[in-house]
């Protein structure tokens, strides 16, 4: 294949990107996005603060712009994200207990129902585990409603959109030997054993010199897949430049291709200038839209299988 989506498609996988609604009018941006990618994640527009700015008043304008652009260009959509400790609307941030639990479940139900049939995969819960050595849950207002908040969110999402794949999504879960990775793994194993409706696990994959691509990435992906879930790389970016960056990108693609249930890769933006990282060059296209060495290494690795 001569594009990322075509090359990934040769093994039945997708290649995606995060899209920002306010960049779709930039023709350099939308031309690259349309040509190279066939899975789209809204970078911010489907988060809780964007879709429910006031309690029980839902706002889908910017999210719809992305979903409509994706669907009219033949792309699938990854919904991001139904429940998260971060990017909560102001009214939710200071809630607690039963009222917060019910507000969260109502949000999951309303948003997943509104988009029923249009979402390939939902990130149902995002970033619920703590960093560091505990392997436990992150403290948050949602966690304090009870440890079962995550499974409750998954059950509500399944009921609202039975056709969508339901994913748990987190960062720093790439290295198999990290406590956080083990914590998420144990949760997924528990969910599968008790019939909690989870279909997949997303690995954000935000890498830099302090958090490099682990050499055991394939082990991590393979072990999660063996629990009976699909795995995806969901927000890939790698700080750096040149051949070092290109090699690290290649390693991530290789790890995914080595696991049958690793069904796709999404990079977190189109050009370096679109990245959430204010400075730095972590993506596959430079600020002018030129293909970088990292692009070529990803494309070649996808084509090599
Ligand atoms: O749109 C407003 C603008 O009107 C305002 O003037 C400006 C002033 O701060 O803020 C703008 O909103 C910003 C938004 O990005 C759009 O640029 C927010 O402040 C800023 O917080 C927000 O950052 C996003 C971040 O998530 C928030 O959680 C990044 O774009 C987005 O790339 C990032 O994505 C996350 C994933 O959702 C989860 N995993 C990690 C990943 C990277 O942090």
From TrEMBL:
Keyword check for Hydrolase: yes
EC number: 3.2.1.8
Class of the enzyme per the UniProt entry, highest EC level: hydrolase
Reactions catalysed according to its record: Endohydrolysis of (1->4)-beta-D-xylosidic linkages in xylans
Domain GH10 per the UniProt entry, residue ranges: 1-301
Active site annotation, chain numbering: 235
Highest taxon, organism lineage: Bacteria
An example molecular function term from Gene Ontology annotations: endo-1,4-beta-xylanase activity
Key word Signal present: yes
Assigned keywords, A-Z: Carbohydrate metabolism, Glycosidase, Hydrolase, Polysaccharide degradation, Signal, Xylan degradation
Family per similarity comment: Belongs to the glycosyl hydrolase 10 (cellulase F) family.
Protein name: Beta-xylanase
Span of the entire protein shown here: 37 to 341 of 468
């Amino acid at each position: 294949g001569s594009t990322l989506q075509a090359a990934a498609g040769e093994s039945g996988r997708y290649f995606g990107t995060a899209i920002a609604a306010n960049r779709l009018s930039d023709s350099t941006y939308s031309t690259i996005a349309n040509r190279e990618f066939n899975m789209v994640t809204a970078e911010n527009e489907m988060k809780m603060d964007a879709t429910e700015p006031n309690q029980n008043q839902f706002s889908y304008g910017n999210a719809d712009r992305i979903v409509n652009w994706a669907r009219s260009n033949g792309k699938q959509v990854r919904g991001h994200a139904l429940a998260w400790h971060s990017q909560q609307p102001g009214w939710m941030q200071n809630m607690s207990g039963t009222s917060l639990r019910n507000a969260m479940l109502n949000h999951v139900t309303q948003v997943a129902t509104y988009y029923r049939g249009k979402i390939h995969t939902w990130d149902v819960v995002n970033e619920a585990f703590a960093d560091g050595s505990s392997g436990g849950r992150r403290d948050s207002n949602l966690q304090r409603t009870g440890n079962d908040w995550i499974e409750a969110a998954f059950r509500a999402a399944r009921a609202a959109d039975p056709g969508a794949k339901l994913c748990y999504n987190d960062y720093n879960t790439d290295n198999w030997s990290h406590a956080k990775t083990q914590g998420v793994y144990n949760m997924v194993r528990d969910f599968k054993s008790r019939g909690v409706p989870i279909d997949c696990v997303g690995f954000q994959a935000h890498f830099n010199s302090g958090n490099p691509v682990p050499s055991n990435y394939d082990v991590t992906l393979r072990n999660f897949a063996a629990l009976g879930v699909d795995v995806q790389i969901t927000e890939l970016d790698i700080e750096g430049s040149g051949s070092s960056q290109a090699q690290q990108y290649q390693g991530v693609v290789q790890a995914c291709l080595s696991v049958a249930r690793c069904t796709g890769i999404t990079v977190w933006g189109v050009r370096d200038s679109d990245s959430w990282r204010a400075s730095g060059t972590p993506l596959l296209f430079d600020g002018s839209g030129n293909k970088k060495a990292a692009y070529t290494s990803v494309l070649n690795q996808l084509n090599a299988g």
